Amino acid sequence: MKLKRILIVDDEAAIRELVRAVLDSETRFFAEAANGLDAQRLLDREPFDLIITDIIMPDCDGIELLMAIRQKSPSARIIVMSGGGRVRAEHYLDLAEKLGATRIFEKPFNITELKQTVSDLLAESAAGQQENE
Fold first, then answer.
1. Contact at 8 Å (CB) between 51 and 78?
2. How far is Cα of residue 75 from the mean position of the Cα atoms in its chain?
């Protein structure tokens, strides 16, 4: 069985660690980035089955990252999370959804719901890859 590759992008190390711990599995490989620029560098080097990103980050935020990924990989599965910033989280998340986020979560997120969503999206990814082979 091929390892599922997940990229976690958040400027808060504690959030990256939490997401990784919650989703950890023998069938998953995780990479982490502290901002959108680091994430884009990783994405340029290797493919990921799923990207989970925060919105409010320094250097390159999650909206910029989402748009960059959509340009290069329209079918990428992307979960966008936000706890808000200058405006309420739902404003950022609505924009992310309009720009092509596969799923959105407001922080603090429901761990069970996140786990189920990740499992569903990885299963979709696997089904799509089998169709293309």
1. yes
2. 13
> Quick check: is 33 in a domain?
yes
pLDDT (tens digit per residue) in 93-129: 999 999 999 999 999 999 999 999 999 999 987 776 6
Amino acid making up residue 106: E
Q: CATH number, domain at 74?
A: 3.40.50.2300
Query: What is the tally of structural domains in the chain?
Result: 1
The answer to whether 4 touches 29, Cβ cutoff 8 Å, is yes
Residues 41, 44, 49, CA angle at the centre, nearest 5°?
Answer: 105
Residue 133 lies in a domain: no
- Domain assignment of residue 117, yes or no: yes
What residue type is 122 in one-letter code? L
Regarding pTM above 0.85, the answer is yes
